[in-house]
Design a protein that fits this description.
Layout: H1 2-45, H2 49-53, E1 56-63, E2 69-71, H3 73-85, E3 92-104, E4 107-117, E5 129-140, E6 143-153
């Protein structure tokens, strides 16, 4: 019995010390991630595609609110440069909330709630929007970067229909 107990004392620090060190770093890491999200808002509102793209890992992915999938920092920068010419030229992004969950010491998930004004639809009409982004963040060389980004427009939550839904005016009925 002494032998088993002795081995436990030797093994326990090996197993629990990394966890304790990770827990001690979490407040600093959470602060760093919140700072990254603040830089996202700042870069967007300055319409600075290069600064915005710099928040992503070199091989980071971005799926925007309409489902366009941009692969890599260079493509993210190019697509945003194009978008800032007209669609987002007068847009203002406001981050309204950030929830962070650490998966490991090097990976975290952040859900970022936002509102946007001044964005123009393809027809040129500004539409106020709100949504939520999901970020998979990776700590690389001591710096948190977005490895994967999914953006979704949000509508107010409502109860699910309990039966068939009446067609909307102007919609084409299914045959």
């Amino acid at each position: 019995m002494k032998r088993i107990f002795g081995n436990t004392i030797v093994i326990a620090p090996i197993v629990f010390l990394p966890t304790a060190a990770f827990a001690a770093d979490q407040p600093q890491d959470e602060f760093a991630i919140r700072a990254l999200e603040a830089r996202q808002q700042e870069a967007w509102n300055h319409h600075d595609a290069k600064a915005y793209a710099s928040l992503f890992a070199e091989d980071g992915d971005c799926v925007n609110v309409v489902g366009w999938w941009w692969k890599g920092r260079a493509e993210i920068e190019k697509k945003l440069t194009d978008a800032y010419v007209y669609v987002f030229r007068e847009s203002t992004l406001t981050i309204t909330g950030v929830d962070i969950r650490f998966l490991t010491p090097e990976f975290a998930v952040a859900h970022v709630r936002w509102t946007m004004t001044g964005a123009r639809t393809p027809t040129g009409i500004p539409v106020p929007q709100q949504g939520i982004q999901t970020h998979l963040l990776q700590k690389v060389g001591g710096q948190w970067l977005i490895a994967a980004f999914q953006n979704t427009n949000s509508l107010p939550e409502m109860p699910f229909p309990k039966g068939s839904v009446a067609p909307q005016p102007g919609s084409v009925p299914k045959s």
